[in-house]
Structure formats: C-alpha cells, structure tokens
Amino acid sequence: MGLISKTLNTIVLGGVGTAGGFAFWTRNSKFVPISSDDAIFSSAAYLRNNPNKNPQTKDLCVRKVPLSKIKPQLLEKEGEGKLVEAFCAGVWGGIGYAYQRSYLEKKYRNSTTTAHQLWTRPELLSSTYDVGTQITDHFEVVSKTPESIVVRCGDSPLKTGVRDSDGLFEMGVKINRDEGVAEFRLKSVFYKGLGRAENPPMPNHVEFAHRLYTKLWMESAVSNVMM
User: Fold this and answer.
1) Total domains present in the chain
2) Is 227 among the domain residues?
3) Is the pTM of this model over 0.90?
C-alpha cells in the first residue's frame, strides 16, 4: 500500500498536478466485471498456485484507442503480436512503473541471483516478453499469445512453489477493425496461495488504491503504442 501511494503521489504532484488532473488524464480507462468463466481461472498457473481455491481480489480495466492513433508498424499482419508486446513494454518501461522499478532495483538487484532479470528501462522497452522472462524480481511471464501476456506476481519469481501472496496480471489487446479501435485490457487476480482464506486478500482501501495504480499503468502503456 505504501509503495502504491508513493507512486501515485509522485505522478500526481510531479506530473498531472492534482487529483482532478489525474482523474481527467485517466478518464478513458474503465473497469468492467470479470466473468467467473474467464480463461485466467482455468489457466495452469492459477490452478497450480491457488490449490485451495481461495477468494480473489480481481479487476479488469479496459481502454479503447482508435486504430488511426496507433503506430502502423504495430498493426501489420506480419507483425502479429507486436502490439501486445509494445503494450506490455509500456507497462514496465513507462512512467507508471518507474518508481516501483527503482525501489525494487535498489532492494533486490544483484550480480548473482537476479542478474538475468530485466531491470533497466531500455531492457524493459525492448523485450519481447517471452515465457520465462523475469521482471525486477517481482514478475515472471507465464503465458504469451498474439493477444495477451500474463505474468505471475506477488513475490519473487525465484520462489517457484505455492506462495502465501500470489497473483496473475494479464496485459491483453483486441483489435476491432469494424469499429476501428483496439481495446487494451489490464486484468488482475490476487489470492492467498498457502492455507485457506475466508476473505479476498485486499481490504477495500487497498483495492481502491490498486485500481488507481492500474489506471496509471494503462495510460503509461498505451502511450507506448500511440503515434
């Protein structure tokens, strides 16, 4: 919660200026319900790492962008999958993740156990995010298709077993050429992996802050795909 608050304060005070400015900047990012039969709940990563089917904190943020505003090379047929890669790169290499990346780098980057992970902004912006890619000792790509990239979160990817705090974060894009738009999607599912839980892992105030952070990531990510 503290890290999220510091990130939001940094962006609001140093960038858009006010809470009202932040609300206006992120006004096109909308939260919609996640269906109980969403594919993320039947994925191998979810089933394996939430063995007791504990309650989740979950959300789905969507943002539509006209195709005319997207870099043409990301929409070429032979470049299928490039749009979601650029969207993903915008999440991790953009302003929305800058404070958290810096914090994690100071705390966890070293020349032995985490040297293979992505840490710098150039690395994060140029990666293709193939399965197995590890990001700042807190995320690991567990699934990739031409339309979505899913990372496991909640703890270090060096901890491969079931974790106390765990989750999945999906970056997806759907192109609707009839409407002339691309719909970008950020989907989060958090849960307690170890033991049994009666309630979702995030209290309401933390979930609220997380949603603000998600909207920040969305704007940062779509800016990486737009002209």
Assistant:
1) 1
2) no
3) yes
